[in-house]
Amino acid sequence: MVSQKRANRELKMPKVTDADRxxxxxxxxxxxxxxxxxxxxxxxxKGKENVPTTGAYILAGxxxxxxxxxxxxxxxxxxxxxxxxxxxxxxxxNVPLLGPMLRGxxxxxxxxxxRVNAExxxxxxxxxxxxxxxxxxxxxxxxxxxxxxxxKGRPGAVRLALETGTxxxxxxxxxxxxxxxxxxxxxxxxxxxxxxxxxGKEVNLDNFRGRKLTNAELLEATDxxxxxxxxxxxxxxxxxxxxxxxDPRAEGQTTTGNFKKGSKK
Length: 265
Fold this sequence. Notes:
Layout: H1 2-8, H2 23-39, E1 41-46, E2 57-61, H3 68-79, E3 84-89, H4 98-104, E4 108-110, H5 118-129, E5 133-136, H6 156-164, E6 168-174, E7 194-199, H7 215-237, H8 259-263
Helix pairs in contact: 2-3
């Protein structure tokens, strides 16, 4: 009951700062960077030339483990030299010390349990309008694919991109699952192990821009983004990609929560 109340508590949104990488973010990034290097070795194999050095864009990638956000933040800050901003689970922002720190470095809390996320989306728009980088995992949760491949996405990232006229830059990543298995929270530190990233070219969404879209069209645009992410994930894994994106609903699975934990009961 307590956790439910915390999840539904009003969430304060972060403010956009004048600097892309303000001092507070730099301080947190340096500390977390040292911690990251004790866990694994983050490598951007290629694609740096595909992202602008200034201005807004949305980074959209596959979601395999709870470490993906911090690994992607590392790439954004240290490899791309930009300030990372994420849409993160709201309950994290209610944790003493952690919540204010996340908000202070420009991370955006989102509501869970079906609550409408109008305020978080407005906050994300403000960051994009200010020329910032927003990272979104369009799947909305960790993949349920048995082999860790990307699954069908949700339209939030595409809707945000189309409403703001922001480019979507896809990426594929692989390697965090060796340190923290999917849907688990135990650490298996391996400083020598590489978490690899490949960044692709901007996804062409011209056919969907400048007009009001139906839900079916938003899902179509989302599938285009996810297919690009799937190709990049296959490239970074060095394996052939599945013929189609994994669909949890078609497999009779829920689309939120830790389904593995539920299956163990």
